[in-house]
């Protein structure tokens, strides 16, 4: 069985990941191996894609490289504060169906644009890709896509320093490390 390995020495880590990928190839011999890279608006996700193309090129040219972008859910209500002298009155405002549809369409266009950019990067390196996008909570859609498309390795970019928000929202990569039904590689961009 595959064991997780963590190292702070880059060369040792690359060697470990390459041996890890060769173990995956041995375990899935005879079936198609799939590597999925999660792309979002964060530059760290593109760093993870470039890392895969540089370090796992042999593996991804022989198998399927899947690029995935989650479309965020539309927030249906917002709270606005109206100043009334020294007091403030808070009231919820419901979005109209037309506004919700417009926001969903915008999110879809953004996701498709991110996928096109990633696809062109891969094409310039001679790697064919399959692109996927799904609407919903990123944590759940990523883990669901791993199961649905039988992904063998999930690659994600390390999140930027969000130390203030992390206790409230949780880390996307931590959630996927715990819940994805395949090995997860988080690629951190050097500072």
Please outline the helices and strands.
Elements: H1 10-27, E1 34-38, H2 43-55, H3 57-62, E2 64-71, E3 77-84, E4 87-94, H4 97-124, E5 129-135, H5 138-148, E6 153-157, H6 166-169, H7 172-179, E7 184-187
Parallel strand pairs: 1-2, 1-6, 2-5, 6-7
Antiparallel strand pairs: 3-4
Helix pairs in contact: 5-7
Description:
The chain has 191 residues and is α/β, with parallel strands linked by helices. It is built from 7 helices and 7 strands. It has helices at residues 10-27, 43-55, 57-62, 97-124, 138-148, 166-169, 172-179, and strands at residues 34-38, 64-71, 77-84, 87-94, 129-135, 153-157, 184-187. The chain has a 5-stranded parallel beta sheet with strand order 5-2-1-6-7, sandwiched between helices. A two-stranded antiparallel ribbon has the order 3-4. Strand 3 and strand 4 (87-94) form a beta hairpin. The longest helix has 28 residues, at 97-124. It is globular. The protein starts with 9 loop residues before the first helix and ends with a strand. Mean pLDDT is 76; it is low at 1-15.
Mean of pLDDT = 76
Taking the sheet with the most strands, its summary is:
5 strands, parallel
Low-confidence stretches: 1-15
User: Which class best fits the helix and strand makeup?
Assistant: alpha/beta
Q: Count of helices? A: 7
Residue fraction in strands: 15-25%
Distance between the amino and carboxyl termini:
33 Å
Oligomer: single chain
Identify the overall geometry.
Answer: globular
Order of helices and strands: HEHHEEEHEHEHHE
Spatial strand sequence of the major β-sheet:
5-2-1-6-7
The gyration radius over C-alpha positions equals: 20 Å
- Total strands: the figure is 7
Which range best describes the helical content: under 10%, 10-25%, 25-40%, 40-55%, 55-70% or over 70%? 40-55%
């Amino acid at each position: 069985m595959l064991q997780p390995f963590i190292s702070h020495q880059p060369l040792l880590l690359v060697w470990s990941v390459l041996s890890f990928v060769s173990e995956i190839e041995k375990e899935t011999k005879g079936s198609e191996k799939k590597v999925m890279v999660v792309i979002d608006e964060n530059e760290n996700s593109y760093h993870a894609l470039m890392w895969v193309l540089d370090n796992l090129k042999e593996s991804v040219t022989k198998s399927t490289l899947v690029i995935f972008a989650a479309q965020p859910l539309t927030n249906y209500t917002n709270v606005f504060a109206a100043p009334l002298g020294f007091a403030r009155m808070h009231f919820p405002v419901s979005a109209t169906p037309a506004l919700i549809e417009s926001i969903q369409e915008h999110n879809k266009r953004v996701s498709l644009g991110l996928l096109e950019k990633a696809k062109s990067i891969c094409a310039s390196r001679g790697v064919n890709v399959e692109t996927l996008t799904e609407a919903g909570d990123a944590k759940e859609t990523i883990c669901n896509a791993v199961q649905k498309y039988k992904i063998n390795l999930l690659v994600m970019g390390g999140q930027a320093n969000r130390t203030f928000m992390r206790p409230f929202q949780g880390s996307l990569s931590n959630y996927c490390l715990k819940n994805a039904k395949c090995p997860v590689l988080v690629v951190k961009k050097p500072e």
